[in-house]
Design goal:
This protein is α+β, with helices and mostly antiparallel strands. It has two domains: 26-102, Serine-tRNA synthetase, tRNA binding domain (Helix Hairpins); 117-423, BirA Bifunctional Protein, domain 2. It has twelve helices and 17 strands. The protein has an eight-stranded mixed beta sheet with strand order 1-10-11-12-15-9-8-4. Strand 11 and strand 12 (346-355) form a beta hairpin. The two termini are 53 Å apart.
Length: 425
């Protein structure tokens, strides 16, 4: 959530910044509502003062033996009027809050301006794209060849956009997640957490999934509903919600493996083959909770931690910075890591590492006490996949395939695969 003061103090500049994010702010309507809020706030305060003054008059009149009924009637009328104005004030504040909840984060000054993915900038590449002396198969063909990837069985169980894995591919999927967790906890110093897969609406709202993206979430029929997590970012980041941390307790670095559930609303016809875009998939998620002054450095560290997994797996990738028009709702700056997929002859996203600044923290009221002033200050939150497990499996299958269809197993994964060195036909 944006700071309301930025809108009150310089709405034109804020509107211009939001425009770069693809959001058009109706300045006149917002200012009219804000003016209404100010008027009602002054009315509430004036009526409260008048009521308090009248209440004191009752006490004096009673002490002097005067008839206090007229004063009681006047206080009752003031109370009725105050309740009416307070109700109007509450409604206007809720309208303003709803407006703020709908606005995306403002991009950092160093984010490239653009409208879509064609305006993103490549920062670096790592590894060499493999050169095959045969036509490489994609992961769907490899899965079918080994009879270890079964979309038809998954469709019978759950419908479209699900995949069933078997035997060595199921084991490799599990091995990849374990390898990622071990690397992030043992090499990078993250604390592993196991979190609920169902969360409350306020938890989803805290990280920006609600109310904006309700259509992409799976919800229970409870009242109130609970939501299946679209990413571990939601429960893990909310560990800081409604907290005021001591300065020496920050930073916090968490890692969690969870399934992720998404309706994929608006993606009809996209990536319908295989495991690229699923309703259910696994991720190992990284979350940093830091002080404002450590935000930029934390973003670089988190991104480097995600890249390290690909380096250890010896998978070629590139890192790009997203433009203003392509970033996620809560982010002020995002690096996407894209792994090379020979079956598609292109790079595909495998991790999105975002700095959200104080945007989520303001929604969650996640704060740290400044040791110099003693006052609470908003924290900054960062998150990124470290990595998406299914897409990493795809990358291993396609990059390590051989002419005969067999698939070499990366050296770092072999201990997790019981010493197995290849998946053979």
């Amino acid at each position: 959530m944006l700071d309301p003061l930025t809108l009150r103090n310089d709405i034109d500049a804020t509107a211009a910044a939001l425009k770069l994010r693809g959001y058009t702010l109706d300045i006149d309507a917002y200012q009219a509502l804000e003016a209404r809020r100010k008027t009602l706030q002054m009315d509430v305060e004036a009526l409260q003062n008048e009521r308090n003054t009248s209440a004191r008059s009752i006490g004096r009149a009673k002490a002097q033996g005067e008839d206090i009924q007229p004063l009681l009637d006047a206080v009752a009328q003031l109370g009725s009027k105050l309740a009416q104005v307070e109700s109007q004030f509450k409604t206007v504040r809720e309208q303003l809050a709803a407006w703020l909840l709908d606005m995306p984060n403002i991009a950092s000054p160093d984010v490239p301006v653009g409208t879509d993915e064609t305006d993103n900038l490549e920062l670096r590449t790592w590894g060499e794209v493999p050169a095959f002396d045969f036509q490489p198969r994609d992961h769907v063909e490899l899965g079918e060849l080994h009879q270890m990837m079964d979309a038809e069985a998954a469709a019978r169980l759950a419908g479209a956009r699900f995949t069933l894995l078997k035997a060595s591919m199921a084991r490799m999927h599990r091995a990849l997640a374990q390898f990622m967790l071990d690397t992030h906890t043992q090499e990078h110093g993250y604390m592993e957490v196991y979190v609920p897969y169902l969360v409350k609406a306020e938890t989803m709202q805290g990280t920006g999934q609600l109310p904006k993206f309700a259509d992409d979430a799976f919800a229970t029929t409870d009242e109130p509903p609970r939501y299946l997590v679209p990413t571990a970012e939601v429960p893990v980041t909310n560990l800081a919600a409604n907290q005021i941390f001591a300065a020496d307790a920050i930073p916090l670095k968490y890692v969690a493996q969870t399934p992720c559930f998404r309706r994929e609303a608006g993606s009809a016809g996209k990536d319908t083959r295989g495991m690229i875009r699923q309703h259910q998939f696994e991720k190992v998620e990284l979350v940093h909770i830091v002080r404002a002054e450590d935000s930029a450095a934390g973003h670089e560290e988190l991104t480097g931690n995600a890249e390290r997994i690909l380096q250890l797996l010896e998978l070629p990738y590139r890192t790009i910075v997203l433009c203003t028009g392509d970033m996620g709702f809560s982010a002020c700056k995002t690096y996407d890591i894209e792994v090379w997929l020979p079956g598609q002859a292109t790079y595909r996203e495998i991790s999105s590492c975002s700095n959200c600044g104080d945007f989520q923290a303001r929604r969650m009221q996640a704060r740290v006490r400044n040791p110099d002033t003693g006052k609470p200050e908003l924290l900054h939150t960062l998150n990124g996949s470290g990595l998406a497990v299914g897409r990493t499996l795809i990358a291993v299958l396609e990059n390590y395939q051989q002419r005969d269809g067999s698939i070499r197993i990366p050296k770092v994964l072999q201990p997790y695969m019981g010493g197995q060195t290849a998946i053979n036909s």
